[in-house]
């Protein structure tokens, strides 16, 4: 998987933890993108509006292509962490939020997002906490697939939904799953 990793940049030992997170993910075979937003902010005072938009577009493009994000958000986290979590959540990406035990991310803890997995860790348990979160993530990673159908297919799906008391998505997933099993036999 391609994983976007970010961390708070103020007042924490998050830097050491972030390096450990990145190393662990890479050992597991993941591709890691780790340009912490606040550390790579250009000098916007010397940039044109167009340059700022181009820089932001580049950042958004990467976040959009990542499969998930891992955030080291130990208190006190900087404002960019909340911004990044919000930007990632609006793209329906799963997020793993790790924080040192006793340094709960107070402001981020108020966030309710079905694809956010939180876990505290100690220096001794960081790898295990990350592994647990990745395991939990298996339950939340589903791919959205949108496509167009003809009016005839739409009409047929409507009949199925009314007759079988199922949703269009459930019916189509069932067809694909049955075909997948049949082809693997």
Any overview of this molecule?
By secondary structure, this protein is of the alpha/beta class. The chain folds into 2 domains: about 1-135, Rossmann fold (3-Layer(aba) Sandwich), CATH 3.40.50; about 150-185. The chain has 6 helices and 5 strands; from the N terminus they run E-H-E-H-E-H-E-E-H-H-H. Strands 2-1-3-4-5 form a 5-stranded parallel sheet, with helices on both faces. Strand 3, helix 3 (about 80-90) and strand 4 form a beta-alpha-beta unit. The longest helix has 17 residues, at about 50-65.
Question: How many individual domains?
Answer: 2
Strand content: 5-15%
Query: In CATH terms, what is the fold-level topology of the largest domain?
Result: Rossmann fold
**Cα-atom radius of gyration:** 21 Å
Number of strands: 5
* CATH architecture group name of the largest domain: 3-Layer(aba) Sandwich
Overall average pLDDT:
82
Enumerate the strands of the largest sheet in spatial order, edge to edge or round the barrel: 2-1-3-4-5
Query: Largest beta sheet, briefly?
Result: 5 strands, parallel
Question: In a few lines, what is going on in this structure?
Answer:
The chain is of the alpha/beta class.
């Amino acid at each position: 998987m391609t994983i976007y990793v970010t961390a708070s940049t103020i007042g924490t030992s998050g830097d050491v933890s972030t390096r450990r997170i990145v190393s662990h993910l890479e050992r597991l075979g993941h591709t890691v993108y780790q340009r912490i937003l606040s550390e790579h902010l250009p000098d916007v005072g010397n940039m044109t509006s167009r340059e700022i938009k181009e820089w932001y577009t580049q950042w958004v493009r990467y976040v959009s292509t990542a499969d998930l994000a891992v955030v080291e958000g130990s208190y006190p986290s900087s404002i960019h962490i909340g911004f990044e979590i919000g930007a990632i959540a609006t793209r329906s990406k799963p997020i793993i939020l790790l924080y040192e035990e006793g340094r709960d991310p107070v402001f981020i803890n108020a966030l309710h997002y079905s694809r956010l997995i939180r876990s505290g860790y100690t220096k001794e348990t960081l790898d295990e906490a990350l592994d647990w979160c990745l395991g939990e993530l298996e339950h939340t990673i589903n791919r959205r697939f949108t496509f167009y159908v003809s009016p005839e297919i739409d009409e047929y799906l409507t009949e199925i939904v009314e007759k079988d008391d199922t949703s269009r998505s459930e019916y189509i997933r069932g067809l694909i799953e049955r075909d997948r099993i049949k082809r693997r036999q």
